[in-house]
Amino acid sequence: MLLKVRNAIVYGASGAVGAAVAMAFTREGARVFLAARHKDRLDAVADDIRTRGGMAEVMPVDATDKQAVEAQLALISDKAGPVKIMFNAIDWGDTQGEPLGTISLEKVLRPVQTGLTTWFYTGTAVADHMARNGGGSIVGISANAGRQAFPNVGGLELPVLPSSIFCDS
Questions:
Q1: pLDDT of 7-49, one tens digit each?
Q2: What is the structure's pLDDT at 167?
Q3: What distances in angstroms separate CA 154 from CA 25, 134, 143, one per listed residue?
Q4: What kind and span of H or E run contains 135?
Q5: Residue from 78, 82, 37, 76 nearest 56 by CA
Q6: For residue 34, what is the DSSP state?
Q7: The pTM is what?
Q8: DSSP readout, 51-95?
């Protein structure tokens, strides 16, 4: 069990990718805190993890709210100890399937703004926490459209944050 006795937060845990990552972390022994805006969806993921013998707790948060992210991290840390793993799979709300010239500026900017905001708030809060608590790993995903141009993917045609990995110390 590679992650035994490690606390992990999975942001965007109510989506398909976040739920799968949370399940993988629990299979490897981590205690996972499932984070997203919709508690009902998080409850379903937690129930699935628990029926398979994993440790998962639901911790709803809006990752576009800096104070909410920081308060949630403090609550988790007070309850379970230092967080050693963070995975960000937050849905950016991108628009796909429409030519760029036919969508609104709001739809183009939404994935850029949401992606940067949530990565900044979750990443900086957790990185600071990890730096004070012996290190950890911050992992996430980005789309291929963040690295090269694809037609009809709206704001993802603009550069987005790359995946970030920091090694345990």
A1: 999 999 999 999 999 999 999 999 999 999 999 999 999 999 9
A2: 40
A3: 32, 40, 12
A4: none
A5: 76
A6: E
A7: 0.83
A8: HTT-EEEE----TT-HHHHHHHHHHHHHHH--EEEEEE-------
